[in-house]
Amino acid sequence: MIKRNTFNEVMVPNYAPSPIIPVRGAGSRVWDQSGKEYIDFAGGIAVNALGHCHPELVKVLQEQSQKLWHLSNVWTNEPAIRLARQLCDATFAEQVFFANSGAEANEAALKLARRYAKEHFGREKTEIIAFNNSFHGRTLLTVSVGGQPKYTEGFEPLPEDITHLPYNDLAAFEYHISDHTCAVIVEPIQGEGGIIPAEAVFLEGLRALCDKHNALLIFDEIQTGMGRTGNLFAYQGYNVTPDILTSAKALGCGFPIGAMLTTKKIAASFSFGSHGSTFGGNPLACAVASKALELINDPTLLSGVNQRQRMFINSLNILNEKIGLFRDIRSEGLLIGCELKEKWHGKASELKQLAEKQGVMVLTAGPNILRLTPSLVIPPKDINQGLKQLTEAMLALKMGLPGT
């Protein structure tokens, strides 16, 4: 049996995974090497939107694996064209670029925005505006655009002409944006930054000011997209349409894929040879994502997201009234953040570990936020059982107990 300490011997030490090694998953339940069962409220960080090993996704993957795995972009393939058509039909977009991850999708969006600005408005229009505490990926450009200095430390010099402003502060944005700005990138809900929803007036203001200054508005929907908020994409719940949208995570429900969506006018700046990806748009990923999109973009499923949100929030509020760990509980659909009271600041990771010992998998979003991103189709019985186990972890943290 492979041991957890082997990870430390053979893997680069940029991760510090849990002591357990999961080996099997089905729906919203996971089993580790010892056979212990866990309720999964983490969802692979908002990736496993249809749970683990969804039978229809497994079927599609098996069928495609017997037809065609990879061609490169010297040729196209049916699953890629089909998925692009579905995404365009379901959104504002007219054309799609496929990559392998959210970071790559954001990298493509930012490169496209700069190229488009230079072609249409001149070489001096290069500034990218992003927001404090944002997260857009780990490539050198996307980590620089992300508004969290802890992720750029040691990687200097960083790409230039990137400005960070306060999130939800429209006045600060209006004061700063200029005709030098080529693009504004924003998360409709900051995920890694603490589950902070954008105010509608803020996003509406970004749209109006981008139009005024001929800047492209990019929505990073890596975490909020594919049904997570109860809409297929979060922008559809606001009176705002971006120029470019990025998607990944739940797009493949666990199979790696990313996508950048935009209009034909903007896409034209990615002329032949200007950008690419060896594996982007491969038949396996696109076949799985096509079925995932078909299943998620369903009114009954999306309505169920809001029903499950109410179950979680009502129960978490009741638990918190009794235990009193959380200062605030925030959510949009099944993207849920529980902010610890000041007394418990810095304890989010400890609570996560205690929850795991009780048999429920959760996440953090910084040192003070417990984050839940479960499957969009998690059964009510799993919600109830997982919350019962989370209760024991909350009590253990409050009482200073080691957990069991």
TrEMBL record:
Cofactor annotation comment: Binds 1 pyridoxal phosphate per subunit.
Pfam families in alphabetical order: Aminotran_3
Enzyme Commission numbers on file: 2.6.1.11
Localization, UniProt: Cytoplasm
Binding sites annotated in the UniProt record for N(2)-acetyl-L-ornithine: 138, 277
Cofactor: pyridoxal 5'-phosphate
A GO molecular function held by the record: transaminase activity
Main location: cytoplasm
Pathway: Amino-acid biosynthesis; L-arginine biosynthesis; N(2)-acetyl-L-ornithine from L-glutamate: step 4/4
Binding site for pyridoxal 5'-phosphate: 102-103, 135, 220-223, 278
Reactions performed catalytically: N(2)-acetyl-L-ornithine + 2-oxoglutarate = N-acetyl-L-glutamate 5-semialdehyde + L-glutamate
Keywords: Amino-acid biosynthesis, Aminotransferase, Arginine biosynthesis, Cytoplasm, Pyridoxal phosphate, Transferase
Record PTM N6-(pyridoxal phosphate)lysine, positions in chain: 249
SUPFAM superfamilies found in the cross-reference section: PLP-dependent transferases
Family stated for the protein in its record: Belongs to the class-III pyridoxal-phosphate-dependent aminotransferase family. ArgD subfamily.
Leftover remarks: May also have succinyldiaminopimelate aminotransferase activity, thus carrying out the corresponding step in lysine biosynthesis.
Subunit comment: Homodimer.
PANTHER family found in the cross-reference section: AMINOTRANSFERASE CLASS III (PTHR11986), SUCCINYLORNITHINE TRANSAMINASE (PTHR11986:SF113)
Protein name, per record: Acetylornithine aminotransferase
Lineage: Bacteria, Pseudomonadati, Pseudomonadota, Gammaproteobacteria, Oceanospirillales
